Amino acid sequence: MRLGRKGWNNVIIFSMLIMIFFLNGWHKQFLSGEQEPTLQAVLPTQSFVLTLSFVDQKIERIGTSWRTTAIKKDVPVFWQPSEQQLQELVNIWQGIQLPVVNESVVFNPNAPLFVATFELAGESLPWVYLLYKGNNQYYLLEKSTQRVFALDLTIATQLFPSFDFSQSGSN
């Protein structure tokens, strides 16, 4: 069986396409081996925070400044920040990148330690973050996407300054 010029061109084209498909799949599989946890921004990039609510207090934007109000009037607030501390807290949340944990983590999903809720400009639903502790590590669960971030005690205290970590116990 002899192939003409047109036939050989078709053979070369199809063999190149097959080779490209194999190499592309191999390339993705080769590079997707064990990787370090990827860092991701906790809040969406370029997000504009309108309010940040914890269990005990609500931090809201008033023009270009911030104010905090107690959610329950008869309960004392653990953290009473200045306006500059409020701005720094929001900046930390907006700029922090944490490692995303892909494997199953060990914490009780029914017992979060603390909750942070964000209302962002242009978003119809709030962004809810739940703080957990397990295996001597703190975890932050973003409720809508179910992303789980790993964080240490230092970062946890920066993100949740109104939570008393001395009362969280040890797991």
UniProtKB/TrEMBL annotation:
Keywords attached to this Swiss-Prot or TrEMBL record, sorted alphabetically, are: Membrane, Transmembrane, Transmembrane helix
Domain of life according to the entry: Bacteria
Q: Which residues cross the membrane?
A: 7-26
Please identify the protein, giving its name as recorded.
Answer: Orphan protein
Q: What is the lineage of its organism?
A: Bacteria, Pseudomonadati, Pseudomonadota, Gammaproteobacteria, Alteromonadales
